[in-house]
């Protein structure tokens, strides 16, 4: 039986926009197993990204508990959350969020700057991560010298370089053409199947969701009953 | 240590990004450069004037004036009183003669080279020991005037600032014609603004009889001034003030340099406030442009402290660059810039050079540093508090 990696219990997230109260997530319960590849689908504003942010320690719930790998994120300080993110989670964004002044290798090394690793060791690990995503020969290129798909591969290398258990992907193929998107999704599948990474992916794209082991549908801050396996 | 490494890493990243934000950065740099330029330029006037006055003063030379006189111009001593002063205790002697010079100080009109306007220039009647009494005075060109003749030696600064004072020139003051026979230098001190002639000739030409306005004496030691002062205070034949030359010139420099400082510092503070707003504006823009980078780094696990430090370092660095540019410009344009102005105390022109000193430049850089820190602090706090999830969503 698979081990539970993340548990959300009674999680609500309310934003205050002036006098208006916006209920983004409403008393949500969810369990995610280690090694899962979960796609989160739903219309805009349904709370997918908010849920992803809560699981990544980028945001805190208004109510309820978020437990990831035994860490109660909902009760951590911002500083504790920063430290936790550095070692436990990798983020993959729709627009890659690479730093334009750094080479691919240096971008990948970024999370390792938060460790006590030597520069040589950081460089070695970055090379390995770039090799995994098939971009070892582009290590010295800057983001503007890479295609969109290559940039996203660098971003994936950056997400896995510190060997986190959990990868959180927010529309990782939203800015890519179909063929390139399929390559990225296959890469995510490989990371899930061969490297044991637990992946949670927010997407609007049903074809992208097909690469996941299961898909959860959200609407108006709640998980819908239908789950696609 | 981990915090420090993070701060260094984010700061270096931030600085590498600076060329992409060149526009805003240049505005901040120029604002601070202007502050330091104006600060150094205005105060270099005061510094130059003070330096010119103080260079002329020595601790081992005393100047004796009629009691209550604020300057040589409103002092007056009879020849008998001057002899009593010169023979008082505490004064160095050369054989039987005291090392002293009785001096008369009048003001003559000479045209400025630059504008042709008439200006008050000091003409000093001196005795043989006048040059020995002033450590830094030497005849640099031509010769010393001869006693009993209408001859002048002129200070180097006066010669460069005023017309008709070249060696060999004849110049008229009132009904009298004078010949310039030599030039003297005095390390740029106030003495260089003067014209010198024989005391007895000047007394005769200006109908002053045998009276003088000051007696300048070389003390045995700087401490001997008390012995001299006490002796003259106890002598009922004279009623005088005894000042070290250094104190005398410090007093002369005070009012004008104070006035310049009173104008200069508030002007600098006002401009600095403007520059702080410039830096604030630039740094808020920088934080806004860096929003994606900051949010990404925070998502990767970099702490708010490193973001705060990187923003403050950027602001401070830009300000220091501005400060260095402003200081360098001030030095290049104003240091050594020669002007003459009326010294209210002596009612005559003092020629002096603007002096952009290391101390002034250090003060300018300190001002730049403060502008950078204040201008960067609030944007830095804003950057550090940026809600990561919200910032990522808005990108």
Commentary on this structure:
The complex is a heterodimer of chains A (229) and B (395). With 229 residues, chain A is of the alpha/beta class. Chain A contains 7 helices and 10 strands. In chain A, α5 runs parallel beside α6. Chain B folds into 2 domains: 195 residues, no CATH class; 171 residues, no CATH class. The longest helix of chain B is centred in the C-terminal third of the chain and has 45 residues. Chains A and B meet through α1 and α2 of A and α1, α9 and α12 of B.
Topology, please?
The complex is a heterodimer of chains A (229) and B (395).
Chain A: E1 4-17, E2 20-33, E3 37-41, H1 48-55, E4 63-68, E5 71-72, H2 78-88, E6 89-92, H3 104-109, H4 119-132, H5 148-160, E7 166-170, H6 178-195, E8 198-202, H7 206-209, E9 214-219, E10 222-228
Parallel strand pairs in A: 3-8, 3-9, 6-7, 7-8
Antiparallel strand pairs in A: 1-2, 1-4, 4-5, 9-10
Helix pairs in contact in A: 4-5, 5-6
Chain B: H1 2-16, H2 22-55, E1 61-66, H3 79-86, E2 93-94, E3 97-98, E4 100-111, E5 118-126, H4 130-133, E6 138-142, E7 151-155, H5 156-161, E8 170-173, E9 176-185, E10 195-198, H6 199-205, E11 214-218, H7 224-234, E12 240-244, H8 245-289, H9 291-300, H10 304-334, E13 338-343, E14 348-353, H11 358-384, H12 388-394
Parallel strand pairs in B: 5-10, 7-9
Antiparallel strand pairs in B: 1-11, 1-12, 2-3, 4-5, 4-11, 6-9, 7-10, 8-9, 13-14
Helix pairs in contact in B: 1-10, 2-8, 2-10, 2-11, 8-9, 8-11, 9-12, 10-11
Quick overview of this protein structure:
Chain A is an alpha/beta fold. Chain A has helices spanning 48-55, 78-88, 104-109, 119-132, 148-160, 178-195, 206-209, and strands at 4-17, 20-33, 37-41, 63-68, 71-72, 89-92, 166-170, 198-202, 214-219, 222-228. The mean pLDDT of chain A is 92.
